[in-house]
Amino acid sequence: MLITGWLWCLAGGVIAGLLAGMLGIGGGLVIVPLLIYLLPVLGVPPELVVQMAVATSLATIVMTTFSSARSHYRHGQISWFWVRRLIPGLMVGAIFGAWLATQLKPEWLQRIFSLVLLALSIRMLVPQRTGEPITGVSKRLMALISAMVGSLSALVGIGGGSLTVPLLQRLRVPIRQAIAVSSVGSLSIGVSAVLAFIVLGQQMESNEGLLGYVHGPAWLGISIASVLCAPLGAALTQRIPVKRLQQGFAAFLVLVSLELFIG
């Protein structure tokens, strides 16, 4: 692996780790675009770049969100009430989303990802509801919604926090608690989807450094940095205004989504 490739992976991991801790997202919003540009440099065939970027992103999310979830647990922010209602649907949906990602043409998968980025950037700028948490939503409806979140997250290589946090906020769950629950949900999506991508990728010709659709060296470089930085991001949520961070990140997502859609 080229030295410059390692440096880019480490830089992406730092950003992904901080975002995972601060916003409860798995970092895929940064990692997938990075890998789409980086994997061809590392010798990945064009027809596999987008699927491999998605799978590798989710593999790094497993490491990042495990570290982030552990930090939020130590801060006492995880609501197990919401974890029990979200996790089963997220995991089932993630397996389906991983399968669907291997069936779509790369250019369509990249455009879907760019549209998801644009929608999420707009959603970050919408004011959130406040008040007492809404706990009366039926378990079946929550299972359906969480399955849809899991499917879309695995399809485009994000941990699901970008979708789960707004969902929980709509149910009036406090922002820091929503971020903590989202980190557990992102971990569940990552584990389920990565296992599916590994199994689905067994039919590909054997390539050094690959585990199914997961690019091992890129995964390792990004994971090292993201795991180290996720606890720092979790600690920063207690000190900095999350709203300002969301606004800046939303502007960044708009630019990336337009570039990926056109490119």
From TrEMBL:
For this protein, the parts annotated as crossing the membrane are 7-36, 48-69, 81-102, 138-158, 178-200, 212-233
Extract the InterPro entries matched here: TM_pro_TauE-like (IPR002781)
- Record's subcellular location: Cell membrane; Membrane
Membrane topology type, per the record? Answer: Multi-pass membrane protein
This entry carries the following GO cellular component terms, namely:
plasma membrane
The UniProt keyword set, sorted, is:
Cell membrane, Membrane, Transmembrane, Transmembrane helix
Q: Which domain of life is it from?
A: Bacteria
Family that this chain belongs to: Belongs to the 4-toluene sulfonate uptake permease (TSUP) (TC 2.A.102) family.
- State the name under which the record lists this protein: Probable membrane transporter protein
